[in-house]
Design a protein that fits this description.
The protein is an alpha/beta fold and 278 residues long. It folds into two domains: 204 residues, Vaccinia Virus protein VP39 (Rossmann fold, 3-Layer(aba) Sandwich), CATH 3.40.50; 55 residues. Helices cover 28% and strands 30% of the residues. It has a seven-stranded mixed β-sheet with strand order 3-2-1-4-5-11-10, with helices on both faces. It is globular, with a radius of gyration of 18 Å. The termini are far apart.
Amino acid sequence: MSAPDERWYESAFGAEALALYAHRDLAEARRQVAWLLGDVAGAGGRGDDPGGSPAPRDVADVLARGAVLDLGCGAGRHLVALAERGVRAFGVDRSVAALAATPAAAGGRVVRADLRALPFADAAFDAALSMFSSFGYFGAQGDRAALREAARVLRPGGLLVLDLADPAGVRAGLVPRSTRRAGGLVFDEERALEDGGRVVVKRVRCRPADGGADAGGAAREWTERLRLHEPAELADLARAAGFAPAGGPRADASAFDGLAPSWDAARRLHFWCSRGGL
């Protein structure tokens, strides 16, 4: 097997990826934001499932009153959902295609940048969110750098909330191969675990659904690599970056249930921590 592409994220998230993940839509983002803000009913939670309890009160309070940064905002669906709830939110992402697809309802508060080098002043935000497994792309050292940057741009006492794939669930339920159609394309996906089950790798090949040439004249292929951070590892990484773990990690279902046969089909792992310096 060839050596892994450590910079896979530079080419993976093009227009085709937006079609592949189109099921991750605004309706889902609204449910997730409702959960974060303590609105169980709006999140679709029920009293008899793990998602039937709201996010911790301190998370909801900080999100409601301060400036929030969406780390890896993609096409801005969570920004729109936050804005609809009156939250002053900003987004950062590396994907040109995703940022170009950001709707006006997001408020135009998006910037293209690497999460390891955020273009914001120190202590600029009250909270930061990382939704839909947007953390775990850069390898062990790079993920540490991303956490340090998140801590830098948060005010003392500011909160970081990570929405991640539950490692145990991913390993237990990984689907090796699948094919599905979306946005006029057919996506063939292959998944495997590497590094002793600590990294999940997805190889995607997309082709026109009608068998003809696509806009680029050929099928496109890319690889996605996601590091599955265990709860104890997350806590250690957070402390090293200057955070004090405030709660979690805990696994939840309901509004965060996966819809596709991928690593995001497992229950979600939620981890929240506060920046030191109070």
